Design the sequence.
């Protein structure tokens, strides 16, 4: 069925295609993310009303409210927004490149690569938080290069990328367990806590690298949105439409790996957001293609809601947000597998 799509001409003479439903979904999800962020800032041991939070953000709060909001809670919320959006964008990129809803970076090894890099720094070198972040980024990038080289055979086909990635993920998971067994008690405890994925204690030091990454990579990924959509039709069709296939794939894979590596460095390995957010965005927009903007706001909203559940559901203690996303994402993965099997795609 044809979707109503409007063409808008810019002052520079460019024509931009706009899908009204997709635009409405992005606006609604963006508003939901903002409302969730304000509600999350207002929750905690020092509760604040919605209006008090807004007034404080606008500079009209008391000294105590200013400190609590701007120094303690706002950085955590911004990390949740940026990490959720980054994971979702990485998932949208790899699911489109592999043309497989299971082609998520935390399924095909890139998330595990970042985890191994971070754990190696913790266990082998006893590095600080900055070194751990660097190790996560380096591990993710090296894993991306390895998967690309192993999957290459006159190009990189989607099914081969997924199969190679799953194999690499299994090997990296074994490396994670090995590193844990080699660590002493203190480092093993630190590594285990980091591996659960948490937003607790996040401050402006984690916000800045995420902002820089998004400022650099987001325009690149959006610029390659149309070629990415064409790649979903297959390499031959993309070649016929004038898309430089391998260059596009390398740029997008590099961007996707950086998204998940920096997000993992900031908050630890938070599972299933990269898998579920792009699929939820596609179902909400009812639009083919990567739906990058919708996926980003869906990922941000999902992680904000998951963090609210983690901090408010159990009154005696807070759960790491990775535990909540793991439970919800595991249920979603089972549903997705059943759906794909019924459709005859797996």
Sequence:
């Amino acid at each position: 069925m044809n979707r109503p799509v409007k063409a808008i001409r810019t002052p520079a003479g460019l024509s931009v295609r706009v899908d009204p439903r997709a635009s409405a979904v992005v606006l609604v999800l963006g508003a939901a993310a903002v409302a969730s962020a304000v509600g999350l800032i207002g929750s905690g041991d020092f509760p604040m009303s919605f209006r008090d939070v807004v007034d404080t953000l606008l500079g009209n709060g008391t000294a105590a409210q200013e400190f609590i909001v701007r120094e303690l809670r706002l950085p955590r919320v911004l990390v949740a927004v940026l990490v959720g959006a980054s994971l979702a964008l990485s998932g949208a990129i790899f699911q489109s490149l592999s043309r497989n809803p299971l082609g998520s970076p935390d399924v095909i090894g890139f998330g595990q690569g970042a985890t191994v890099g971070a754990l190696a720094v913790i266990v082998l070198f006893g590095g600080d938080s900055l070194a751990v972040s660097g190790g996560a980024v380096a591990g993710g990038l090296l894993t991306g290069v390895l998967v690309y080289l192993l999957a290459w055979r006159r190009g990189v086909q989607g099914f081969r990328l997924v199969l190679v990635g799953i194999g690499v993920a299994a090997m990296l998971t074994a490396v994670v367990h090995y590193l844990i067994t080699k660590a002493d008690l203190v480092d093993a405890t630190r590594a285990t806590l980091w591996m659960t994925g948490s937003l607790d204690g996040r401050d402006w030091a984690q916000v800045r690298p995420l902002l820089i990454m998004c400022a650099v990579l987001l325009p690149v990924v959006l610029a390659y949105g149309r070629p990415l959509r064409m790649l979903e039709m297959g390499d031959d069709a993309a070649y016929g439409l004038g898309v430089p296939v391998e260059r596009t794939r390398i740029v997008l894979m590099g961007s996707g790996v950086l998204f998940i590596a920096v997000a993992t460095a900031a908050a630890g390995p938070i599972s299933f957001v990269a898998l579920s957010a792009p699929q939820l965005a596609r179902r909400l927009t009812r639009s083919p293609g990567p739906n990058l903007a919708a996926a980003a706001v869906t990922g941000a909203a999902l992680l904000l809601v998951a963090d609210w559940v983690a901090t408010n559901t159990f009154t005696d203690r807070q759960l790491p947000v990775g535990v909540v996303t793991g439970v919800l994402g595991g249920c979603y993965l089972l549903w997705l597998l059943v759906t794909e099997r019924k459709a005859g795609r797996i």
Remarks:
- Strands lie at 6-9, 15-18.
